[in-house]
Specification:
Layout (H helix, E strand, L loop, with lengths): L1 H15 L2 E5 L3 H6 L5 E5 L2 H19 L17 H10 L15 H19 L11 E2 L4 E11 L2 E6 L5 E5 L3 E5 L5 E4 L13 E6 L3 H4 L1 E12 L2 E14 L2 E10 L14 E3 L5 E5 L18 E5 L21 E4 L4 E6 L6 E5 L6 E5 L36 E3 L5 E6 L12 E5 L5 E7 L2 E8 L5 E7 L5 E6 L2 E9 L2
Antiparallel strand pairs: 1-2, 3-4, 4-27, 5-6, 6-7, 7-8, 9-10, 10-11, 11-12, 13-14, 14-15, 15-16, 17-18, 18-19, 19-20, 21-22, 22-23, 23-24, 25-26, 26-27
Length: 486
């Protein structure tokens, strides 16, 4: 939070002295939801404080509490004051942007637009480098960050090859091989993706027998045209890695139905102790429709065989109308999944809205409650449900309020990190830290927050030789955590 207050101070200096050219709204323009038309005004310190509070509380979870995701972004709907005003007031629900017309007044929206614009300028002037020489201290050990990769935008996932190379997905659609010599090589043959909103090329997972068959699995936002509309869905591709190319590509899962929305694809992949392929799929924005509806794929965890066929003992395989790949339901948007090193059970975390991020242990046929049960409220402040528990709903073992926007997940294995053995590591997109969770059995007993303000942590992995790697986005950097003695 210290850096958020420092940013606020920078913005306060800039905004109080700022002459903001907004526009004075006619009654017709107000009905259309346009930005107010032109009059000179200065933002007072109270208005700056109000705008900062509204941004942090309502926008920071998705867009970064220090506006970092706005820097160098492609503004699909424009970044003029008028375009930004319209986006905030009316939203773009298909892309996960809610409307705030009932939350903010026009004056508050105008102030929020100014805050965002000035914040982007302040962000561009901030130093980006994290020195490797810095020693980071945790409760149980000290470590440094070794920079492994720079120069990409959003590294969504990592996978480690037997020869020491690393596969990295970039959300824009490219699969890379990072060699041991730190050369970044593009892999040909990746699937076509819809790189909009939260969509793109997402997770990558090696087959358990990769050393013998060179098989990998990719999750991504598949795209198609239908009646002039661009639709997308979550899909899984299996392919064989042949040098720097993918061969024998086969789509083994394609969620139904396709939708116009551009968010909540889920898409983490993990192999269970049964050798079957598990993967997550978000609700695709269908909050009140999809997660509790077994006739659609969205809002679920799925289990399939490696060729895409359905295991005979899936929980709903014989239920009329139910999608046979479903393993759990009532999930919102899980972007972290890992296998417990001792019990071999699969754990996942999922995004809440404003509040209510969860860690869950996957149980066959379990209902995790979304959106009938939640510890969060909607982004615009409205209530989703009065219930935090309900008969027949599996309770989470960890809840974050406020939301940290979790992404990436790994258990610490091996003995490189003394005192961290068995810890669960989770990245935070919103607050930009690495969460270390102390685990005892199936209980999380304590949280330690590390690397405050490191950036939006998208993925966390532990390599075969026991090192922890984190992938940070905008700008994209992959770090290795190296324990040190002092």
């Amino acid at each position: 939070m210290h850096s958020a207050f420092k940013l606020a101070s920078v913005l306060l200096v800039g905004l109080v002295s700022l002459t903001n050219c907004t526009k004075t709204a006619s009654s017709t323009a107000n009905q259309a939801g346009s930005a107010p038309l032109a009059t000179e005004q200065q933002l007072t310190s109270a208005q700056v404080a109000d705008a900062r509070s509204n941004y942090v509380n309502y926008c920071g979870g998705c867009h970064g509490r220090e506006l970092e995701t706005f820097v160098n972004r492609k503004w699909q709907h424009g970044n003029s004051p008028e375009a930004m005003f319209k986006s905030i007031k009316h939203g773009y629900p298909d892309q996960g942007m809610p409307a705030y017309a009932s939350t903010f007044s026009d004056a508050q929206i105008t102030q929020l637009v100014s805050f965002i614009q000035q914040g982007v300028v302040a962000q561009k002037d901030k130093p980006k480098d994290k020195t490797n020489a810095t020693v980071h201290r945790s409760e149980k050990l000290n470590f440094q960050l070794e920079t492994v990769l720079t120069g990409i935008d959003v590294p969504w996932a990592m996978a480690f090859l037997p020869n020491g190379d690393m596969l990295v997905t970039e959300r824009s659609g490219t699969l890379y091989r990072l060699t041991q010599n730190r050369d970044l090589v593009k892999i040909e043959g990746s699937p076509e993706v819809l790189a909009q909103g939260q969509g793109g090329l997402l997770d990558v997972k090696l087959h358990p027998d990769f050393a013998k068959n060179n098989t990998i699995f990719l999750s991504y936002s598949a795209v198609k045209k239908d009646g002039g509309q661009t639709l997308s869905t979550t899909a899984i591709m299996r392919a064989r890695l042949d040098g720097n190319s993918l061969k024998d590509q086969k789509v083994i899962f394609e969620a139904q139905p396709y939708a116009r929305t551009r968010h909540h694809y889920g898409s983490r992949i993990e192999f269970g102790k049964d050798g079957l392929l598990y993967f997550t799929m978000g609700d695709r924005g269908g909050t009140k429709v999809n997660p509790q509806n077994l006739t659609v794929h969205a809002g679920k965890t799925h289990r399939i065989k490696e060729d895409g066929s359905i295991p005979a003992d899936n929980p709903f395989v014989n239920q009329a109308g139910a999608m046979p790949s479903i393993f759990t339901f009532g999930n919102r948007n899980a972007q972290g999944m890992a296998r417990h090193p001792a019990t071999k059970e699969l754990w996942l975390h999922e995004h809440g809205p404003r509040g209510g991020d969860e860690v869950n242990i996957i149980k066959k046929g379990a209902n995790y409650g979304w959106a009938d049960v939640t510890h969060g409220i909607d982004y615009n402040g409205t209530k989703i449900s009065d219930l935090k528990q309900k008969a027949g709903i599996t309770d989470p073992i960890k809840i974050w309020v406020p939301s940290i926007a979790p992404s990436g997940m790994a258990f610490v294995t091996g003995n490189r990190y003394k005192g961290w053995e068995g810890s669960l590591l989770v990245g935070s997109l919103s607050f930009k830290f690495l969460s270390r969770l102390d685990v005892k059995g199936n209980t999380i007993v304590k949280e330690e927050r590390l690397l405050q303000d490191i950036g939006r942590v998208r993925d966390v992995r532990v390599s075969p030789d026991g090192y922890v790697y984190i992938a940070v986005e905008n700008p994209g950097v992959i770090y290795r955590l190296v324990p040190v003695k002092e």
